[in-house]
Amino acid sequence: MVAIETFNLTKDFGKFRAVDGLNLKVEEGEIYGFLGPNGAGKTTTIRMLTGTMRPTFGEIRILGLDMKKSELEIKKMIGVAPEEPKIYPYLKGHEFLSFVCEIYGLDKNQANSRIRELCEAFSVDYLDKLILEMSHGMKQKLILISVLMRKPKVIFLDEPTVGLDAKSARILKMLLLKYSQEGCTIFMTTHIMEIAEKMCQRIGIINSGRLIAEGTMEQLRLLSKTTQGSLEDIFLKLTSSEDNILQIVKEL
């Protein structure tokens, strides 16, 4: 089954085209890496895919449902962890998680058991703190727990390891691989090429709003004519001039 599909997805901000005719097809259970330079259109794409931003034109289908016709139904089946967690600052951590449980109609006993397990895994012992008092990394863990405790069918992650300590980042990667094996679809952006190379079955590279390359590591190597290159080598070759980078370094 196709979990995420877009048709000519486009987003304009005035005269600026942030996403330009994007066509994606991500299969159920796939971990899909969505990479690109800063300002390439990654976050804008995720916002459209998750229903928090309307496209200028184009279509989005999540788990076979049309975003325009079934937005609420789709939002019940997906989980989203944005790069910048925006949570009401005067809630305590446990109040925020309780609120999420109520919104999604989760069984309280099962949810509380799941929350305890995830808090132990991510070393979260600050649920009595106000969100206002939490660091970026603490809020990032809280958002991840609020998503992972639900085990949604599709998870969207925008730079999920930013602000996480090494242990938590490792646990997150292992959990995502486990969820993928259980049929959950993961759509993630990251600037850490090593994470994308090791975790993602397929990778899409966006630049200036356009999907310029897509495929497995082997397919990307063929496309970039980089037979033994790492994902970082491929990414730089496709999105910028290697010679230009060397020249910049030489002049510094």
UniProtKB/TrEMBL annotation:
Keywords: ATP-binding, Nucleotide-binding, Transport
Annotated InterPro entries: AAA+_ATPase, ABC_transporter-like_ATP-bd, ABC_transporter-like_CS, ABC_Transporter_VariousFunc, P-loop_NTPase
SUPFAM superfamilies: P-loop containing nucleoside triphosphate hydrolases
Coiled-coil segments on the chain, per record: none
Residues of the ABC transporter domain: 4-233
Alphabetized Pfam families for the sequence: ABC_tran
Keyword hit for Transport: yes
GO molecular function terms attached to this record: ATP binding; ATP hydrolysis activity
PANTHER family: ABC TRANSPORTER ATP-BINDING PROTEIN ALBC-RELATED
Protein name per Swiss-Prot or TrEMBL: ABC transporter related protein
Source organism per UniProt: Pseudothermotoga thermarum DSM 5069
